[in-house]
Design brief:
Thrombin, subunit H
């Protein structure tokens, strides 16, 4: 019974204490006690406030770091796309320059019927028993390509078609040892035969001893034989070898075509061969 009475008195007691505390607070009698409690709890409140601030800062930093990582990934992806686009545009620009040069060559030589082609393969023999030097093009019979057709760039003579298939053709370069081209020097009109050498260079052979050959002179196709158009640039003479006891003199020729960086070429599918005088009848 006493225990139940005590439990019933507790709420009333608490209410009485609350009312008493409110009355004392309103009357100002608890001010000294409140000041003491505030002074005692101030350090704890400051510590709790600082901890809350630090926690907020850490939470904000974590959010900022996550956002920065996401933004960095987006920027990296955008940079990769821009890099690929830049590479593609540079390739388009480079191809446009090549096409413009080939077009200029075609316009400067209206008597030549040409077909454009892209170099898709390159084979240059290095072994002593394999000295062939040729490239592969991406056009063939379907474009009217035939064996022995000349192949050029705006830089000069590349070679002649050596083999043809459906969708491909092979060009034997003028630097191949089996290649021989009738040629003339521009200044002195000295005639000879430009031959490929095993090291990939060119030599103008069979030059008559009476002809004058000068270093720096330009070499063109002569058109003799009807296999090539005349006045297609071949190269420039870099050295002359002449011996009085030999019938002919020879000259080293630096080709004007950069055979290591061929990308696009023109196949001459038609031209007007020079007419050779008919032999006198007996």
């Amino acid at each position: 019974m006493d225990r139940e009475r005590l439990q019933n008195l507790i709420p009333a007691l608490l209410l009485t204490l609350a009312l008493l505390g409110f009355i004392l607070h309103q009357a100002g009698w608890l001010q000294p006690v409140e000041n003491v409690l505030l002074r005692l709890s101030a350090p704890l409140q400051e510590s709790l406030s600082a901890a809350a601030d630090r926690w907020g800062d850490l939470t904000q930093a974590a959010r900022d770091l996550r956002n920065l990582r996401q933004r960095n990934q987006e920027l990296e992806a955008q940079n990769a796309r821009l890099l690929l686009e830049n590479v593609r545009l540079k390739e388009v620009e480079h191809e446009a320059v090549l096409l413009r040069r080939l077009l200029d060559f075609a316009l400067d030589n209206p008597t030549l019927a040409v077909r454009g082609a892209r170099v898709v393969g390159r084979v240059i023999g290095r072994e002593p028993d394999n000295l062939q030097r040729y490239i592969t093009l991406d056009i063939g019979r379907e474009a009217g390509i035939e064996r022995n057709m000349p192949v050029v760039t705006e830089q000069g003579l590349v070679g002649r078609i050596d083999a043809v298939g459906d969708g491909w053709s092979r060009v034997r370069l003028i630097t191949d040892p089996s290649s021989a081209v009738n040629a003339l020097t521009q200044s002195t009109r000295a005639s000879g035969l430009v031959q490929g050498l095993p090291d990939g260079s060119l030599e103008m052979q069979k030059i008559p001893q009476g002809d004058t050959v000068s270093v720096g002179d330009t070499v063109f196709t002569s058109g003799l034989g009807g296999n090539l158009p005349r006045q297609i640039l071949i190269g420039q003479i870099t050295g002359v070898e002449r011996k009085d006891y030999e019938l002919y003199q020879t000259a080293r020729v630096q080709p004007t075509v950069d055979f290591d960086h061929l990308e696009m070429v023109l196949v001459i599918v038609g031209f007007e061969p020079i007419s050779e005088p008919a032999p006198d009848e007996p």
